[in-house]
Amino acid sequence: MTAADEQIEQRQNQFHTWGVYGLLAVSALLSVAAHELMTSPAEWYAAGALVVAAVLLQLWHGPRRGRRTPSARGTFYYVLRWAISFALAWLNPFFGFYASTGYFDSDELIPGRRRQWLGLLATVVVVAGSQSGGMPIRSPTQWLLFCGLLAANFGLLTVVGHITQQEEQRSRERAATITELERTNAALQRALDENAALHAQLLVQAREAGVADERRRLAAEIHDTLAQGLTGIIAQLQVVANAPDLAVARTHLARASDLARHSLGEARRSVHNLAPVALTDAGLPEALKKTVAEWGERTGVRAEFTVSGTAEQLHEEVAATLLRIVQEALSNASRHAGAGRVGVTLSFLGDEVILDIRDDGRGFDPLAVPARTLPHSRLRSSGGTPIGGFGLDGMRARAERVAGSLTVESEPGHGTAVSARVPLVRHD
Fold first, then answer.
1. Residues 379, 387: contact at Cβ < 8 Å?
2. When you count CB atoms within 10 A of the terminal residue's CB, does the N or C end of the chain come out lower?
């Protein structure tokens, strides 16, 4: 309850408590002033006794402390007060002011709507009788006046009662609305608290997922740089060990040295920002062309690179992803496929970039490869060579990281085709 509501409630308590005494005092003073209306001492004694009874009744009823609940005790008080007011108004019509107190509290004292209207009608009878000249009614003119005043008073009371009832209904609806709003606000606050807790939990999970993703990315970067470089160096050194003459050995030693330098550069670059060295001074088409050419020269496999469409400068992350996919696919082709020819095509098609790597090697059965393998799992190709590791899973994960996809088509004895499709995101 607001301060204004409390003030209104306090004033209502004061009116219901002291209003009865005030109207009784006004009625008594006016009756004394119009003393000629009571001609015998018996009427004066009776009026005095009734006034004292009215005061004692009001003291017994007690002050009002908030809205009362209708009860049998309240009904007894209302009826007894009406009887005293009727008797006083019979002695002197000015006591009709005291009788009008029945208008103010019938709804708080008498239970039941019909009984309340009966109490009000009884009050109207006393008031109309006082207004028409006092009781008993002696002449037809006074009876006509009494009936008119009775109808007017009861009609006015009905209108006021209807307006009061509507106002009380609106007050109850406002109170119900306020209560509902308080419940809604409390529920909204609980939902906000829950959302805040969920937001904090999501931040923690996102941070953990970011750490895990970064670890996987670092593992893939190390695999794509150091591991592949060291594999190439080992392959060159194995050729040197079985070289028939010194010239061949020196050629392969030079290649091994170049691979070592390249791997060292990749390692330093990876430590700096994990971006491929080949993309530092060239765009993706030039980097792919150089990568494919060096791979073909190193492995002795015929390798071709083709660009389709209008080449554009891609975002660093997209370019690095496609370069790493080509490096991994070429590494798999050299280690597992036994291919004699490899073709790499980079296609710029509107809002996406498509990278295709095809070889004519021994191939494998894609259905035998799980959708997601463990980082160090191994499968056997048709030729008995292990495949897997970071290979297919690594390429697929890289493509998905930039909102792309990767598909693999292969059949034992008929080569392998790897296709990566990624959005065309231009360089900032």
1. yes
2. C
Cα atoms found within 13 Å of the Cα of residue 374, Cβ hemisphere only: 3
The candidate with the shortest Cα–Cα distance to 127, out of 158, 152, 96, is: 96
Closest of 131, 162, 160, 163 to residue 148, by C-alpha = 131
Bridge partners of 308, per DSSP, are 347
How far is residue 214's CA from residue 270's CA, in Å, rounded to a whole number? 13
Q: Cα 150–155–156 angle (5° rounding)?
A: 100
User: How does pLDDT run across 51-91, given as a tens digit for each residue?
Assistant: 999 999 999 988 888 878 889 999 999 999 999 999 999 99
* Tokens coding 298: 């190193």
**Greatest Cα-to-Cα distance within the chain, rounded to the nearest angstrom:** 158
Structure tokens at 414: 């008929």
Q: In angstroms, what CA-CA distances link 216 with 279, 331, 378, 408?
A: 22, 19, 18, 22
Per-residue pLDDT tens digits for 129-178: 888 888 888 889 989 998 998 898 888 878 887 787 788 788 788 888 98
In this prediction, residue 381 has a pLDDT band, given cuts at 50, 70 and 90, of: very low
pLDDT at site 356: 95
Residue matched to tokens 């160090």: 376
- Looking up tokens 């390429």 gives 395
For residue 427, what are the CA distances in angstroms to 118, 263, 318, 424?
90, 26, 9, 10
Alpha-carbon span 428 to 35, nearest angstrom: 107
Q: What share of the chain is helix, strand, coil (3-state, %, to 5)?
A: 70, 10, 20
Is pLDDT of 221 > 90? Answer: no
DSSP codes of every residue in 151-185: HHHHHHHHHHHHHHHHHHHHHHHHHHHHHHHHHHH
Residue with tokens 């670059």: 269
Quote the DSSP letter at residue 102.
G
Residue pair 327/398 in contact by the 8 Å Cβ criterion: no
